[in-house]
Specification:
The complex is a heterodimer. Chain A contains 9 helices and no strands. In chain B, helix 1 packs across helix 3, helix 2 crosses helix 3 and helix 5 packs antiparallel against helix 6. The chains are: A mainly alpha, B mainly alpha.
């Protein structure tokens, strides 16, 4: 049974009232949704809030899921809309300094979780967290519309046609936003690492 | 950036939907356009940098629980009630088409499909034959009783007339009267036959009426005798 078919089976069971199937469905996708939320919000606390809203939205609309697309595609459509709603409610600072502060919080939070994974090299884990934190800071410096295009293209592997449909813009506009975002990120990378 | 195609070219480079011919044209342009070649190189570096992201573990969080009333189940319950009247209509229509007959009798409730079966017709015929025989016997007894009563009455009348004539006019006159009485007696016999025929016709009419009523009652009760 493919992952999509497993999703469909879990959805059917959840709609029939199976709390266990619903829990399994959430656990299967929570890592992807959390990382999506983290890259868009830039800090773990907002990422958790966004993830909570996403899964509540999924639950409220689960009976409308027709299986015409994969569940993950449908899920990220909801996540995309929830991210925009949250950004409108909480206009975040786009300054690099504030983003780096949030990234520092993330590193500290991850250090506290090191005890949970004793088999992993602490130094390698620290390097990984620092790279992620830097990436978060650079992403946070982008305007929301550019951040969303980068997220959808680089991490969710959507086509520009799909991004255009999702954001109700033309494909050329999506391409221009993507290119502009890459140039901005390149500049930030050079600023941070002298690249 | 002087080339106006740079933004589209860089974006298309990361689009997996390009067909080989389009990708070849894109690469061909980048080989001859310094601006686009440089932008493409920088974009590849940035893209590779972004892809160094390591997925983060989800911190402990309160997963939204599934409420006890699933939404789809409630929709199904509504659908069941919406279909119930149609289901009842279908059952009634089927009962009419199959000529379902429900009757109760001494042996309890019975359900039949279609017209009455052959054994019921035989029972009906047997019951009607028994009723016919019983009727014929009663009619014959009644006719005999009536004829005996009429004969007795005629004999008494004739004796009374003869005695009266002999007493007033003598024996010769009495003989003439005997002839008259014989004629009178023959007329009475004819009257008696006519009366018997009328009784028979009346009884036949009553019998036909009773039989019709009984057949109607059996039809209403579903063929139960």
């Amino acid at each position: 049974m493919s992952l999509a078919e497993q999703d469909d089976a879990l959805i059917r069971a959840a709609l029939e009232g199976s709390a266990r199937s619903w829990d399994q469905l959430v656990r299967r996708h929570e890592t992807q949704v959390y990382n999506f939320s983290l890259r868009l919000t830039g800090n773990p606390a907002d990422a958790l809030d966004l993830m909570q809203e996403v899964f509540l939205g999924v639950y409220r609309n689960l009976h409308r899921f027709r299986g015409e697309s994969q569940f993950s595609t449908w899920l990220f459509r909801i996540a995309h809309n929830k991210a925009i709603d949250m950004a409108r409610r909480r206009p975040s600072s786009t300054s690099l300094e504030s983003a780096l502060e949030d990234a520092g919080d993330l590193i500290e939070a991850r250090w506290q979780q090191l005890d949970d994974v004793p088999e992993q090299d602490p130094q390698a884990l620290l390097d990984e967290r620092q790279r992620n934190a830097l990436l978060l800071a650079q992403m946070a410096a982008l305007p929301l519309e550019q951040r969303l295009v980068v997220e959808l293209k680089v991490f969710q592997s959507l086509t520009f046609e799909e991004i255009a449909e999702l954001q109700d813009i033309s494909a050329n506009t999506a391409k221009t936003r993507f290119y502009t975002a890459l140039r901005r990120l390149k500049a930030l990378m050079e600023q941070d690492h002298g690249m | 950036m002087a080339c106006e195609r740079t933004a589209t070219l860089v974006a298309d480079h990361f689009d997996d939907t390009l067909v080989p011919l389009q990708r070849e044209a894109l690469d061909q342009h980048a080989r001859h356009c310094a601006d686009c070649a440089q932008a493409l190189d920088e974009a590849r570096q940035t893209h590779a940098h972004l892809r160094t992201w390591q997925p983060q573990r989800v911190p402990a969080w309160s997963r939204p629980a599934l409420p006890s009333a699933p939404q789809k189940r409630s929709r199904l319950r509504w659908a069941w009630w919406q279909w119930a009247p149609l289901a009842v209509s279908c059952v009634l229509a089927l009962a009419v088409v199959l000529n379902v007959q429900i009757s109760t009798g001494s042996q309890g409730m019975a359900i039949r499909f279609g017209a009455s079966s052959t054994p019921d017709t035989a029972q009906l015929e047997a019951r009607l034959a028994a009723f016919d025989a019983q009727y014929q016997a009663a009619l014959q007894t009644l006719t005999q009783t009536l004829m005996q009563q009429q004969a007795t009455d005629n004999a008494r009348l004739m004796e009374a007339v003869i005695d009266s004539v002999v007493e007033q006019f003598g024996d010769s006159t009495a003989r003439s009267l005997e002839q008259v009485i014989a004629y009178f007696e023959s007329q009475r016999e004819q009257d008696l036959q006519l009366l018997q025929a009328s009784y028979q016709q009346l009884a036949d009419s009553d019998y036909a009426t009773i039989r019709s009523v009984e057949q109607l009652a059996m039809l209403v009760q579903g063929g139960q005798p």
